[in-house]
Amino acid sequence: MIYSEKGHVLFTHISRTGGTTIDNCMRRLLPDSRTIVGQHAPLFSARALLGERFEQVYKFAFVRNPWDRFVSWYALIARAKYGDDSTHAELIDPHAAHWQGFDAFLETWCAQQTSIAGVRHRSLSQWAQLVDADGVLLTDDLGRFETYAEDATRLLAKANLYTGEIQKINTSQHLHYSVYYSAFGRELIADAFPEDVGNLGYQFKPEVFPAHTSDTILGLNASEKPHSPPSFSRQKRE
């Protein structure tokens, strides 16, 4: 998490959701910004540290389709292994040797658990990173990776941070996420992260266009957007 006492802003950094861009923005525009608890720590853990200030700061985060999120992570591993050449088959070809290990990767990480506010959760659950022990959402706003440019502009404006054009960094190259999933992997994500799917309004969508896609694309095909998404904005508590 990134916290600025001067700016009264607390950003919860969920991995592979565009958080590095927000992190850099806050550190540039609010020099007192610092990591508290841990880079990807659950929001609940900041409550004890900040005390009354926790209720006063503007708290926001970004979320992402869980199936797409895991593809992004595994693609990033390929980039680290093979370099930044996006034309390298190992980076994007779902039949390449690297991607043959995707199911095993999912099985390993979907089994990991942690305790947050005394409740056991899947370690990589986005929902668990944002709620209290009773499952109540602690953020004032959530943005979506699928509409990153629009949401980042809106949320940063609420935090009184003007950035101009939003440019995501720490991205990965890959095809549409659906082409990397076996039936086993698809169900594994649904079973391991039901709150990320149901509470955040996501579903698995097959590929609807053949174009090469990547994390650097801002906004996806309309059918790729969450179905009937709940509203996450709430009134700022005084």
What is the secondary structure topology, with strand pairs?
Layout: E1 2-4, E2 9-12, H1 19-29, E3 34-35, H2 45-50, H3 53-56, E4 58-63, H4 66-82, H5 89-92, H6 102-110, E5 113-116, E6 119-122, E7 141-144, H7 148-158, E8 173-174, H8 183-192, H9 194-198, E9 213-214
Parallel strand pairs: 2-4, 4-7
Antiparallel strand pairs: 1-2, 1-3, 5-6, 8-9
Question: What would you say this structure looks like, in words?
Answer:
By secondary structure, this protein is α/β, with parallel strands linked by helices. The longest helix has 17 residues. The C terminus is likely disordered. The strands form 3 sheets. It has a 5-stranded mixed sheet. Strands 5-6 form a two-stranded antiparallel sheet. A two-stranded antiparallel sheet has the order 8-9. The chain has one domain. Helix content is 32%, strand content 13%.
**Which class of secondary structure composition applies to the elements?**
alpha/beta
Largest sheet geometry: 5 strands, mixed
- What kind of assembly state do the chains in view correspond to? single chain
What is the approximate shape? globular
- The termini sit apart by 22 Å
Average pLDDT, all residues: 85
Low-confidence stretches: 216-229, 234-238
Helix count, DSSP H or I runs of 4 or more residues: 9
Number of structurally distinct domains: 1
- Computed Rg: 18 Å
Helix content: 25-40%
Share of β-strand residues: 5-15%
Number of strands: 9
Supply the key terms:
9 helices, about 30% helix, single chain, two-stranded antiparallel ribbon, alpha/beta, about 240 residues, five-stranded mixed β-sheet
